[in-house]
Amino acid sequence: MSETKPNHFEILLILAAFVAGSVDIISFAGLGGIFASAMTGNLALLGLYVARGSIFSAFGALIALLGFIAGVSTGTLLTRDRLNQKAITILLAAQTILLFAAAILWFTVSHRNGRLSADLLILILAIAMGLQAVTGKKINLSSIPTVVFTSTLTNIVVSLTDLLARGNFSLPKDTKRQMASFWAYFAGAVMAGLLSFFGFSVVIVLPLVAVAISLWLHLRKIRVPEAV
C-alpha cells in the first residue's frame, strides 16, 4: 500500500472532525447559540448567558455540557476492556443511532430556543459528541481529539514554525493529519453554515451521513482486512 494513501483510521479522524464542525454550527445556528461539540466555547457561552440573564440560552449551554459529560462517561463504560476495533464499532454505531434520532426529532417537532424539543436535541447531539470524543481517543492518531481544535491548531503552528526555523519544508505525518482534521472541521462548519443560512432543514443530515459512512468504512475494514 502506498504511504501517501490515507489509512482507515486517518479517514475516520477526518470524518469525525467534519461531524464536529457541522454539529457545532447546527447547534449554534439552530438551537439557541450553543456548541454541542466544542465544550471550551460552550463553557464561555454559558458564562456569558448567565451574566446576561439569558435563561433559555444558559440552560441550553448547561444541557450541552452535561450531555457531553454523559456521552464521554457512557462511551468509556461501553468500551472498557474491549479491543479498539470493537470499541470503535460500538461508539460509531451509538453515534449513528443518536444522530438518526436527532434527525427524526429535527424534522418532526419545533426546535425553537426554550422549547423542550430543542433542549432534547441539544442533549442528544452533545451525548453523540461525547461519544465521538472517546472515539478520537480510541483512534489515537497524532494527539488529535476530534472535538476541540485549539490544541490542534497550536500543534500545527508549533510544528510549522519549527520547520521554518530549521529550513526544513517536509511536513511530518502528525502535522499533515492535524492539518487535515483542522480543515475537515472547517469544511463541516462551512457546509452546515451554508445550509443553515439558506434555510435548508436537511442540514441535520450532514453529521448523520458522515458518521454512517465512518461506521460502514470501519465495518468493511474489520471484515475485509487489507492484503499484506
Can you characterise this structure?
The model has no long low-confidence stretch (mean pLDDT 90). With 228 residues, the protein is mainly α. The protein has one domain: Growth Hormone, Chain: A (Up-down Bundle), CATH 1.20.1250. Helices cover 75% and strands 0% of the residues. The chain is built from eight helices and no strands. The radius of gyration is 18 Å and the shape is globular.
Describe the structure in brief:
The chain is mainly α and about 230 residues long. About 75% of the residues lie in helices and about 0% in strands.
Mean pLDDT across the residues is 90
Q: Tell me the span between the first and last alpha carbons.
A: 8 Å
Number of helix segments?
8
What level of helicity do the residues show? over 70%
Number of E strands:
0
- Approximate shape: globular
User: Which second-level CATH architecture applies?
Assistant: Up-down Bundle
Radius of gyration: 18 Å
CATH-defined topology:
Growth Hormone, Chain: A
Spell out the blueprint of helices and strands.
Blueprint: H1 8-30, H2 39-52, H3 55-78, H4 84-108, H5 116-139, H6 150-166, H7 173-197, H8 205-223
Jot down its keywords.
228 residues; mainly alpha; Growth Hormone, Chain: A; 8 helices
